[in-house]
Design goal:
The protein has 10 helices and 6 strands. It is α/β, with parallel strands linked by helices. A 6-stranded parallel beta sheet has the order 3-2-1-4-5-6. α1 (17-32) crosses α5 and α3 (53-64) packs across α5 (74-94). The longest helix has 21 residues, at 74-94. The site of xylulose-1,5-bisphosphate has 19 residues, from α1 and α3.
Amino acid sequence: MTLQALIFDVDGTLADTERDGHRPAFNAAFAEHGLAWHWNVSCYGDLLAVTGGKERIRHYAQLHDPDFLARPDAETLIRQLHTAKTRHYLARVSRGSIPLRPGVGELLGEARQAGVRLAIATTTTAENVTTLLASTLGGDAPGWFDVIGAGDVVAAKKPAADIYLWVLERLHLPAAACLAIEDSRNGLDAALAAGLPSIITANDYTCGQDFGGALAVLPDLCAVTLTSLRALLP
Ligand code: XBP
Ligand code: MG
């Protein structure tokens, strides 16, 4: 089937946001709330097994601070921590401190020129996506994407298929006419469960993962063109 849309994951795919964006933002939120929690680079890699910031905070507390979760206001605190984390993350990204990964800007440009539609399917908060796009590609860049599926618009985050199904419904396209670009096993599972042909652009946190089911596993998107992507499609 003709390739009609590219659906991009965000964190780890468009940019290496996890280690130097989300992680320090979580730590800043913990410090602001007087919590003696600190997520170093290595422990954060393990925590990435759980997608979604609020879900990741809850998971960490289950493992390392059960007293926190036993508090009657634990869910409120998680929401407050996450709001603070998002504020810190947006401040970092707005400063322009996180660049796009190699080849991302070129592929987006080629797709736009060729009339291949663009979409986003991510676990992260919607404002994080639009701010990253604007800070790296310019203020009009969020408008290049026909659909931005993000965060809590679906109840079940990746590896569930929900966010990809949400995006496909709004693109009014069958999965076979699209290609998902992901960086992680959780993301790949979500895309495959939605029936999407998928490729992986791996990064330091994900390069050891098993990417069975992907049409290609690439170190980055350098030299990736629409022609090379079309050649991968069944
Ligand atoms: C990345 C994630 C997110 C971010 C945090 O998802 O797992 O949880 O780390 O985002 P993806 P929030 O790779 O699908 O973009 O704190 O905004 O939830
Ligand atoms: Mg990702």
